[in-house]
Fold Acetylornithine aminotransferase.
Amino acid sequence: MTTEAVAITRELSGPPTGGSAAVLEHYQRSVMNTFGPPKRVFVRGEGPYVWDADGRKHLDLLSGLAVTALGHAHPTVLSAITGQIATLGHVSNFFATPAQVALAERLTAMVADPGEARVFFTNSGTEANEAAFKITRATGRTKIISTEGAFHGRSLGALAITHNPKYRDPFAPLPGEVEFVPYGDADALAAAVDAETAAVVLEPIQGENGVVVPPAGYLARARQICDQHGALLWMDEVQTGMGRTGSWLVHVDEGVRADVVTLAKGLGNGFPIGACLAVGRAAQLLGPGSHGSTFGGNPVAAIAGLAVIAVIERDGLLDRATELGEHLVGAVTALGHPMITGVRGRGLLRGVTLAAPVAAQVADAALDAGFIINAPRPDVLRLAPPLIITTEQLDGFVARLPELVDGATKATRG
Ligand SMILES: *Cc1c(COP(=O)(O)O)cnc(C)c1O
């Protein structure tokens, strides 16, 4: 980056004096308290590392919630974004741009033969799911089947298909006739879907619920059940898609065809972008005037998505995610630690299950030791490292894990 660009970002965001404590004090007085107190203030990132405002380096094993799959400040993504924004930054959806169309073609090719799928671009995962929700309404049916433990976002439509009562209840009434069935139970799904069902919405792996993998064949059964009743199969790949799990899309990898697919997190490597893909008849359900977005499909966001796809292909990162994921499972399992009961997930989306509800304490201890992970459930640690991480960097974390787990276990007992 030019020194001028660095200087202006410093000037606009304020001088980094007083370190984290000073920034957090200002945060608390100016930012809405929806997330609780931030655990760190970060000022810079490079590859798998981020540095906080006190100069401490951290290994980022969470990638900003499965987002920065190519690591921080990836040179190709950086060049693509700066090149696009210097050329043309925004025009609205009254107009088209080459970047938007190129990304539309790349994404639709991941789910269907040429010409069979269409995309609606958004800025986030929850908005991609809102677009999908509208597609389901355009079928003329209104019933949706979702699953226990599902997470699909925080806007009201996405919240209606999200299961956690803590997120839902304060905002009732939510739209739609939504029924929740146990995740991974194909018989329960078969019993719930009928001729009134507009769609079945599923995460191929439940990320926010603690990286829960359904039994083999579950997605294929869901496809059959939807076909029997003329319901749409809507796959939410916001967290699992775009290489995170070792393939572009989990359901495609399993040979399952979806009618609607939503994407976001890994798509722009941190530049906000989401997408709702629809295939076949579902691709024709929304017509002119039925949906819209000012920013969706913005050429800068689109070029970020194109750069991500190009780098993943060029560097063979799908296979790399699979290999590293297996390496991680082997390394954690080899610890033979009595508190670690298993490692689940796929590729580089992993949940380490613990024998006691100490995951939040382990995640805090890890942060103090310079590793970013999180605890989606009281007894599950989530790891979603960038696909560019090295085996040595992963091993460095695994080597410290026993001490972190022991420390948290003792602290909660004592
Ligand atoms: C994170 C997530 C969302 C919501 O995405 P946002 O960009 O936070 O709105 C939706 N679905 C799944 C499966 C997710 O993991």
About this structure: The longest strand covers residues 340-346.
